[in-house]
Structures are given as C-alpha cells and as structure tokens.
What does this fold into?
Amino acid sequence: MKRKCLDEDQCPIARSLDVVGDWWTLLIIRDAVGGATRFGEFQKHLDIAKNILATRLKALVEQRIFTVVSEAEGGHGQYFLTAKGKALLPVLVTLAQWGEEHTVWDAEGTKLLDAKNLQPLRRVELMSQDGRILRPDDVVAIEPA
Amino acid sequence: MKRKCLDEDQCPIARSLDVVGDWWTLLIIRDAVGGATRFGEFQKHLDIAKNILATRLKALVEQRIFTVVSEAEGGHGQYFLTAKGKALLPVLVTLAQWGEEHTVWDAEGTKLLDAKNLQPLRRVELMSQDGRILRPDDVVAIEPA
It folds into this structure.
C-alpha cells in the first residue's frame, strides 16, 4: 500500500512516523550511532542494493536527519547525524528495550551502552511532571477538541 | 521494496522493527491507547480500507500485541492491547516528544498525558545505571564480537 503522507497530521507521533516510520530509517540511524559514516559501511550493515540505499540517505539528508560532508575526490562523502537525528536516540533505546524483553533471541545482540563505562542504560521509565513513574494505564491519549 | 524479515536479526532494535516497523502499526497502537477498541473506531481514525485494516489487526493479534474479544452476535469483536502491546508506550512517547520538537505544526495536536491530572509527561531522558543523564554522544552502539 502506498504510504500515507502524515507530515501535516495533527498528531506528533504521526508526524514523526512520516520521517522515521519505515523500518530502514531507524536502522540507518542505529548504524550511524554505531559509528558508520560511509556509504559502504551502511550498505554492508543493511545488506541492501546501492541504489536503494542512495535514495534513502538522500531522503534523510533532505529531512536534515543527516548532514553529508563531500569528499574532494568525489564519491559519496561521509554522513553524520545532525542534532535532529541524534535526538531520535530515545526512540532507538525504547525500541531496543522492548525488543530485548518481548522478542526472542538466544545470543548476544547489538547493545546501546553508556560510553563512559560500557554498561547498559537504565530502563526508560515514563514519569509525571511531579516525578511519579507512570505505567501504561496511567497514560491517556487526548485528541484536540 | 519488499520488507526484509528482521525477526532473527541479532539487533533488538531490528527485531522490534520487525513487529512495529511499519508506520501504521504504531498509529493503531496509539488509537488503542486513546481508547479505541472497535474495528470501526480504528478505521475512522486511520482512514484506510476495511480489508487493509483487517489484515493489519490480524497480524497484530498474531504478534500478541492485541487480544481480541469476540462478540456473541459475530462481527469484528473488540481489540485490547496486551501487556506486550502496552509496553510499546515508551516508544510512542519518545516519538511524540521528538515530533513535537522537530516537526512543524501550528495547532493543538494529539497528546499523551498523565491520566491523573491531564498534564504532559516529563521529557524522557536516557540515564546511566548510576543516574547520570546521557546525551546522544554519551551512548555507543556495540555489536557482538
């Protein structure tokens, strides 16, 4: 099915998904967090055709998720996450924590770790303004009137 | 492009995206958090064809994101998030917070609020085991050796 355009949706979740709602976007960003900057590195990690990856990286540069630094000798250049791109890290972390708990895998997987001591991050908790931990049933979704 | 199967990927982010990596999945879950339980409610919110929604809801029931309670008189029944489905709420919240900050919208949008007092949630911060707030550059992605 053709992707619906959500960039003018009133819901901020929908607008975010307009940018990162295809599975490959967050995997490219994950690879960038892991240190990948070059076209060939992304291609090796994602195992997709060059023309498809080129289209995707171009879209992410247009969305200002990545900035690209050209090379003097031509070629693809290097791709770096912008502040806007780096701000997606909490989405990656919550997806990783959900995946660790709710999907099956019996070996060591990719980990997002504290750079200082290579320890796992604390589990993300949703909190109220006054510091209460909020369980799923403590949160409501309200649409504008 | 055909969706790659990621359910045996070593990366928990990829495995999560195998379940929720299509934009519509998280929007259906958002609507369920907002109180939708009936087929017609999801259809009205998402504005998609009945056969497409039926396929999607079936997939989410197979993934145990939703449980379906049948009705005596037939029909679609009611769809409720399981604990596994509700555990995706931090993913929705981090997407919403990113969307509020990094996408453009000039009116009131859907909000995820503290049910007790209808206040916005605290901004999600990534934290180390010992309680330091981690900025994006304080987090590294490590692949298994």
About this structure: Chain A has a mean pLDDT of 85. Chain A touches chain B through 86 residues (CB under 8 Å).
